[in-house]
Structures are given as C-alpha cells and as structure tokens.
C-alpha cells in the first residue's frame, strides 16, 4: 500500500517520518540522505550523511571541517537501513557519484531520482532504471517544449570559430563533462581552466575518471598559443565585467534565459528533459508519480487520464 505521507515537503526539505530522515535537506538534520554534491542538494552541518564516496569527497572539499558529523558511505546497490526503512543507491547519471534513492517500506518501493539525466556521459555513472511503486522525480525541465539536443552535437559549435572562447560552466559536474566533450569532439582546441575548477577535477581523476588534456590558465596563453583556446571559467568569472578582445563568450546550460546575451548558444544540460522524464516513467512503471525540484503541473496534465501525479513542491 502506498503511504501518501511517506515523503512530504517541509521547511527543512523532503522528509520521511517513517524513517526520520531527510532527502537533500535544506537545513542541517540528524539523518541526511544526499543524492549528489551540488550545493543546492548538499549543505554543511548534517550529523549523519548517507551518500556515495564521490559525493562525500566533494562535500568534504567544499565545507571542510563543517562538512558533516559522520559520513556513512554506501555503494550503488548496497542495502542499508535507517530506522526501519531499507534504502539503496542507484546511479542517476547527473554527475560523478550522483544517486537515485530507492526506499522500501512495508512492501512498497519509493524511488527518489534526485537530479538526473539519460544522455551519455563518460565522466559519471550511467543512469540505471529501477522499477518502483512511486517515482519521486525532479521536474527541472518538465515542459513538452523542452528537448535537449545531443551534447556532442552542441559542443561541435565551438569548432565554428577560430577565436579564443571563454566558456562559462558550473565548477562541479558540468565543467568536467565539458572538458571530456571538447577533447573528443573539438580536437583542435586547447583547453585551459580557471584555478577554482582544479580541486574538483582532481577528485574526478582520483576516482578514475579520465577527461583528457587540460592546463591551468595563464594570461600568456592568450598571446602565445598556436591553437585556439577554450578558457573554462566559473559563473562568477564569466559574469564579471572583464573585457577581453577577440574572445567569444559562451555559457553551457539548458536554460534559454541564460543563453540570450551570449555570443553563441551552447545547450548542454545535466538534467532530464521532457522526453527523458516520460521515458523514465515508462521504464519505472510506477502507480504514482510525485514531483519535486520544479513544476510538475504539465506532467500532471499529461497523465491526467492514466496516472496519479502529485506535486510535492
């Protein structure tokens, strides 16, 4: 039997009262089950953090001694229990270490996706379909008009200019994927990275992920490089008022609003689009879908005759 209140939205985040734990809490809690290490899902100060090893490494680097009281690191597919609820992590395909959370209680299976994508990405574990009675899905891009192009198709746009490129991207997950894509599909480009990216890149490499060649940025490269540069920078640098002559500014994102002022549009997203959400629902075969992290209204309308869709946010 599906418990309508098994997961509820609270000021501290998604809460399971039956196991007294939170999924990606927004405030420090006693038991935090963390799907991945992006700052909007993984905060500092939780007493006990259940997560994958890469997620623990990223959180520890970002928050240092305030990262967590204790990390309880779990492998994909490994069963663990919190106050009578059995849990498992499965790959979510969003970034290195990202996990879906399967929660089993009284014979019912509840699957929380966290952030996820189905597109191929060699810098992280591929999304794994898991059947469940309730699918709790992110709905960042749950819009029938949103369909992400193939990343390899988009990255090829960088080959259309001989000018140096300032490429803006989030430091964790997106930047590492872009380095890999450029090395595979823009082989004439020389990749240089902002220093803030290096610690996260090093953790990827420590965990066995090879992204290919890159170098730490040096201003002299702008004058001396024999190959066109792609200078990968975090948003704060990309959005600064620094003016560089003969440089094309590009920001990699799935959000159209963040593309409008750029000199080239690069739609590379690490979230599922509409078709991928629909496919996931088809593969998971849930009796109910609960939505979070975005609007589920259009998904509810789409399934109004065939499936229960409940909005948690």
Automatic annotation (TrEMBL):
User: Could you state a single Gene Ontology molecular function term?
Assistant: RNA endonuclease activity
Q: Where is the signal peptide?
A: none
- Which InterPro entries does the protein's record reference? MBL, Metallo-B-lactamas, RibonucZ/Hydroxyglut_hydro
Pfam families from the UniProt entry: Lactamase_B
Parts forming coiled coils: none
Indicate the segments forming the Metallo-beta-lactamase domain, all copies: 27-127
**Protein name (Swiss-Prot/TrEMBL):** Putative mRNA 3-end processing factor
Give the organism the record lists.
Pedobacter nutrimenti
């Amino acid at each position: 039997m599906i418990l309508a209140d098994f997961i509820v939205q609270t000021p501290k985040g998604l809460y399971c009262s039956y196991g007294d734990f939170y999924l990606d809490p927004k405030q420090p809690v006693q038991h935090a089950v963390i799907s991945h290490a992006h700052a909007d899902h993984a905060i500092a100060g939780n007493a006990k953090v259940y997560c994958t090893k890469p997620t623990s490494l990223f959180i520890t680097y970002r928050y240092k001694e305030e990262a967590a009281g204790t990390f309880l690191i779990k492998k994909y597919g490994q069963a663990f229990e919190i106050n009578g609820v059995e849990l498992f992590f499965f790959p979510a395909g969003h970034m290195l270490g990202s996990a879906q959370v399967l929660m089993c209680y009284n014979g019912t299976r509840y699957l929380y996706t966290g952030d996820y994508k189905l597109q191929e990405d060699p810098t992280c574990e591929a999304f794994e379909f898991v059947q469940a009675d309730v699918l709790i899905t992110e709905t960042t891009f749950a819009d029938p008009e949103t369909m992400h192009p193939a990343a390899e198709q988009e990255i090829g746009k960088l080959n259309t200019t001989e000018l140096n490129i300032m490429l803006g991207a989030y430091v964790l997950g997106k930047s590492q994927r872009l380095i890999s894509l450029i090395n595979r599909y823009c082989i004439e480009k020389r990749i240089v990275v902002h220093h803030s990216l290096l610690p996260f890149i090093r953790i990827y490499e420590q965990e066995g992920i090879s992204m290919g060649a890159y170098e730490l940025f040096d201003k002299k490269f702008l004058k001396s490089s024999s190959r066109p540069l792609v200078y990968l920078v975090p948003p704060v640098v990309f959005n600064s008022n620094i003016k560089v002559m003969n440089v094309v500014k590009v920001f990699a994102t799935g959000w159209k609003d963040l593309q409008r002022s750029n000199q080239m549009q690069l739609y590379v997203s690490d979230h599922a689009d509409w078709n991928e959400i629909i496919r996931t629902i088809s593969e998971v075969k849930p009796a109910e879908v609960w939505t979070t992290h975005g609007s589920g209204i259009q998904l509810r309308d789409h399934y109004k005759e065939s499936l229960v869709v409940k909005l948690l946010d």
